[in-house]
Amino acid sequence: MSVTAQSVWDNCLSFIKDNIQPQAYKTWFEPIKPVKLTNKALSIQVPSKFFYEWLEEHYVKLLKVALVKELGNTARLVYIIKMENTYGNKKPFTEKIPSANRSGVRAQEIDVPIKNKSPELKNPFIIPGIRNVKIESQLNPNYNFDNFLEGDSNRLARSAGMAVANKPGGTSFNPLLIFGGVGLGKTHIAHAIGVDIKDKYPEKMVLYISAEKFTQQYIESVKKNTRNDFIHFYQLIDVLIIDDVQFFSGKSGTQDVFFHIFNHLHQNGKQVILTSDKAPVDMQDIEQRLLSRFKWGLSAELQTPDFETRVSIVKNKLYRDGVEMPNDIVEYVAKHIKSNVRELEGAIISLIAQSSFNKKEVTIELAKQVVEKFVKNTKREVSIDYIQKVVSDYFQMDVSTLQSKTRKRHIVQARQLAMFFAKKFTKASLASIGSQIGKRDHATVLHACKTVDNLSSTDKQFRKYVEDLTKKLSL
Ligand code: ADP
Ligand code: MG
Predict the structure, then answer these.
(1) Predicted confidence pLDDT, tens digits, the chain (475 residues)
(2) DSSP assignment, residue 128?
(3) How far apart are CA 354 and CA 367, in angstroms?
(4) What's the rounded Cα separation, in Å, for the pair 458 and 184?
(5) Residues in the ligand 1 pocket, defined by CB under 6 Å
(6) Residues of the chain with CATH 1.10.8.60
(7) How far is the CA of 60 from the centre of ligand 1 (A)?
(8) How far is the CA of 31 from the centre of ligand 2 (A)?
(9) Which of 144, 184, 338 best tests ligand 1's pocket when mutated (most atoms within 8 Å of CB)?
(10) 423 contacts: CB under 8 Å, gap ≥ 6
(11) What is the DSSP letter of 120?
(12) Comma-separated ranges of CATH 3.30.300.180 domains in the chain
């Protein structure tokens, strides 16, 4: 009997069926159609991008085992996403296979080599002097401007990004620094700029890299005595995108090397794009000369999106995934998840998944349950005991020292911080906070809160304490 896509897939299915819940099998595997088999690559058709992501996230191991069993070690899986109404962009997921256009239905193909999932920078160091080298840009085409929804919260950053993409190195936005809180789209915009530049100027060398990876590469190059090659490599790039530069904090070697690379690129009219979770003024332990460079160009802040923007982000995501959901549910979710777009998307995905697992309609009830989980996770109530513990740990003292009657300055400060956070993070009254933190009265607590407020606006070091502790307490 000859081996066909159908026969291979049938065998995979019978193996998969034995290894997962019947409901999950029905939901995630029955809708898949085997399409073709070329060499050792099996193409399967899935109904949406969401579907593909779900398979990759939850069943990639199982799929791998099944496929290797059938086709051997060189087996590969190619996803074909076929859906009605695809939003916006013309780009397929990978550059490999262009999307086919059949009567308004768009197919996207994703070629997933079954072994290494995230391709590393293939050629981190290239011998200097060769101008025509190709590098892997490390860009994610799923992050583009078309699917980055505009709102008041991101208008400046988005349009500055587009301006830079139109004329890399040719605007006054150099460097372009995008900053803002977690999950607000910094990484998305950073990729979108790179993707757009590659689209318009295919010959330009664009590189996206996280500050963390840049740092690792640098350390590695020092170890291997190839620091110069490292610098030369980065000096060849036309558009350098570094994500999360706050990671450079306190790393003086990396800052130094980046400073030199930056100057070289800037002098040669090359574009630099940076993202950070803080505004330059608030960055700690970054050298002044580097901070002043950051300010040469434009710093654009991403703020939390307003309700309308959140609704459009959700609707757009549903549309792209080919999923329908009643308006009141979309609005309910957008109303309650406010501060982080990643969480907003997470809630929607979890909602879709739950409803398709249980074959239930998405109801307001279900939405409430899902939203509650997300909101609870972010707003866990902390106790006064816990606050005292965290503050004393931070200053490396015992809780009893923190509560003691001593007037030593650093202990008084720690105590005042504990009171301040107790006021901020709990619903306890001033009197009750005082009695739990070393038996003080309510006036002492009030005074503590005022002192902390004052000090954090006048004293940089003190502000750092407040920020660090806020982070620790909000985890
Ligand atoms: P950050 O890097 O700031 O932590 P990300 O860029 O990773 O945030 O964004 C988190 C998620 O939210 C991503 O999936 C991104 O696509 C999405 N997102 C953020 N802002 C928008 C927007 N304006 N429109 C569409 N998607 C957005
Ligand atoms: Mg990011």
Answers:
(1) 688 999 999 999 998 988 888 777 887 898 899 999 988 889 998 877 767 777 887 888 889 889 988 998 888 888 887 753 333 333 333 323 233 333 333 344 555 444 433 333 334 444 333 344 557 899 999 999 999 999 999 999 999 999 999 999 998 899 999 999 999 999 999 999 999 999 999 999 999 999 999 999 999 999 999 999 999 999 999 999 999 999 999 999 999 999 999 999 999 999 999 999 988 888 888 999 999 898 888 999 999 999 999 999 999 999 988 888 899 999 999 999 988 999 999 999 888 888 777 777 888 988 998 888 877 655 556 789 999 999 999 999 999 999 999 899 999 999 999 999 999 988 888 999 999 999 999 999 999 999 999 999 999 999 999 999 998 887 6
(2) T
(3) 10
(4) 29
(5) 147-149, 154, 182-188, 313, 341-342, 345
(6) 307-377
(7) 24
(8) 33
(9) 184
(10) 430, 433, 445, 449
(11) P
(12) 5-113
Q: How far is the CA of 83 from the centre of ligand 2 (A)?
A: 29
Is residue 238 within a helix (H) or strand (E), and if so which, with residue range? none
CATH topology of domain 384-474: Chromosomal Replication Initiator Protein Dnaa; Chain: A; (1.10.1750)
Q: What's the topology of domain 155-302?
A: Rossmann fold (3.40.50)
CATH class of 307-377: mainly alpha
Q: From the CA of 185, give the closest atom in ligand 1.
A: 6
Domain(s) of CATH 3.40.50.300: residues in the chain: 155-302
Q: Which atom of ligand 1 is nearest to the CA of 309?
A: 23
Domain with CATH 1.10.1750.10 in the chain: 384-474
| DSSP secondary structure string for all residues of 243-288 | E-GGGGTT-HHHHHHHHHHHHHHHHTT-EEEEEESS-GGG--S--H
- The structural architecture, per CATH, of the domain 5-113 is 2-Layer Sandwich (3.30)
**Relative to the alpha carbon of 341, which ligand is closest?**
1
Query: Which ligand neighbours the alpha carbon of 150 most closely?
Result: 1
| HSE-up of residue 131 (Cα within 13 Å, Cβ side) | 3
Considering only CA atoms, which residue is closest to atom 16 of ligand 1? 188
Distance from Cα 218 to the centre of ligand 2, integer Å: 21
State in Å: Cα 243 to ligand 2 middle. Answer: 7
Q: Are 51 and 107 in contact (CB under 8 A)?
A: no
